[in-house]
Amino acid sequence: MNQSNSRASRMRRKASSNTQFHNDTADPKNGLNRIADKPATGPAGGPTTGPGGGQRRIMLGRLRILSAGVFLLCLMVIARMAWVQLVWGPDLSSLAAEQRTRIYTDPARRGAITDRSGQQLAYTMQARSLTVSPNVLRRELPYVAKQQLASDENYVQGSEETRNQMIEAKVADIMTEYSEEIPKIIEKARTEKQAAKATKTVTGSTKGLKDAAKKSEVKPEDIVAKLKADSNYEVLVRNVDPDVAAGISEKYYGIAADLQDVRQYPNGAVASNVIGKISQDGQGQFGFESANDSLLSGINGRKSIEVSTDGQAIPGTVTDDVPATNGANVTLTLDLDLQTYVQQQLEQAKANSGAKSASAVVLDAKTGEVLAMANTGTIDPNGDITSQLEKGKNFDNPSVTSPFEPGSVAKVITAAAAIEDGVTKPDEVLQVPGSINMSGVTVKDAWEHGTVGYTTTGVFGKSSNVGTLMLAQRVGEDRFADMLEKFGVGQATGIELPSESEGLLPARSQWSGGTFANLPIGQGMSVTLLQMAGIYQAIANDGERIEPRIVKKITDANGVEQELPEAKRTQVVSPQTAQTVADMFQSVVQSDSAGVQQGTGAAAAVDGYQVAGKTGTAQQVDPACNCYSNSKYWITFAGLAPVDNPRFVVGLMLDAPERGVHGEGGQSAAPLFHDIAAWLLNRDNVPLSPELPGQLVLQAN
Predict the structure, then answer these.
(1) Which of 245, 505, 651, 665 is the most exposed, having the fewest neighbouring CB atoms within 10 Å of its CB?
(2) What is the pTM of this model?
(3) Cβ of 357: how many Cβ atoms within 10 Å?
(4) Which one of 179, 357, 399, 408 is the catalytic residue?
(5) Is 631 inside any structural domain?
């Protein structure tokens, strides 16, 4: 009872306080205060004037403003939704689909490159790359650690803090093991492979093994850095033997062995000027690899597959499955054994002569196929490219990219024109003075002499500039210009290699008075070594010039051989003229103890075989005076063997030698021709030539 009275008393006091609070509605007539629960209304039900009606109007105004704001907000939301649906909708749908679909690329296998006998020059080897997801690995290694510690009594009986410490220590040990043991496994496998390879080759050496191991060294600190990287994908080691990679992947948790194609160049620097190399992303970068990249690379395949929310592939959801088309396999005309020999001889000749560089081209006389195309200073694509570049080595192929003035080696064009047109005969005796004046230009021979009776054969055997120009005058400028074109001077050969130069030949309309005083003796124009060899190939092939080619066969991914375009053929001179000129140019390599009937390239002769050719010496331009140098020359030689049944054409160029190719006095390339021709004739067991009936007459008594 007392509690009820007390509660009632509190309620009354509360009501009293409320009445006092709302005294703005007090009724003066009865003196009582009342609460105005509802505002007074007028006849129409609207608010009456007075304090209560004004407050109502304010509240309604605020409500209208609020309603308008809500309406505008709704309108903006509707407009936004319409914009997303109509404008962004397709893109967002596409993105959503992409999040559900993964597109996988099936890389095409790059085609192999072989020499004419099938020896490998470049091929693609399947290897493996060791990869890892550092973020995922570090997140999952504690669970691996727990499994390994499950049998440890200290861990089982330890407190939670002790267990966590042991897990952290175990994870650290696992990371250390990864970084230390993986490099050891890889290096051991590579060293064993190199050792096995060295036992199969005569040239294998301990130094080579050490160098190879050094190049392929995998550093533990690199492994640690990648394991600690904040990323979802890292390549730990590239180019790992598939079996080794599989073993590592199986042994070490979280390490994957991804498929990787590695381009191999088994012959190192041999023919790298021709073959070139690919870049790290698999694109042709230099040489044949670059010029024929689309042919070799093939077409990548692709497939799409649905994935779950956690990124796992859903079986049976493969769509848009397009298989890869592997690149074509290419057989080059190169002879690897010959290429190797020629390259070795060039390096030795450069060292002996002090030349800046040396180059050689060997052609098949009957087909124009390139059997060897070599130069000094080539790069080993398997080695450290940067360090080799610093040493002056490069991927250049000057035989097709770097023209030079051929000098007297080009006199064969003048000889062919004169014989073809019948303006002279091999045994005609010309009274050759010590100099000749042509259109105000005086040209001398390389040696001082009065008027001498040289045969037409002797003019070229002795390499007389004056005698050559005398014959050129009989041919005439227009006819000589025509012969230059037929021999391919100033024209690209169309060889399947990049950056080929056309050389330089002044247009007939631009010839000045002195032009015809230079061109017949091989100056005032420039040719590549390949072009120079092509001139002599025409002489060796019954007067028919065949554009040189370096591709012998192309086989597609299905093993079907592709049809190759026919090489362009040009009948430059008659077969009779070609044979006569070849016979005449045997005088160049003729020896005579008295010296009278000796040619300028006697050192090129090969015992038992008839060979022909021409020496060349062309002055280089001195940039200091923009004039011809009296000390720097291009030394050239071009020849064919054997004359009685031509098989090979050899073109040689030495850039500014100081001595002979064997270190002897003089600056002739003739001895190098002898070395290469003799090796070829002996290797291929070419039958000996019939003996000549006697010496050719160069100088009449």
Answers:
(1) 665
(2) 0.75
(3) 18
(4) 408
(5) yes
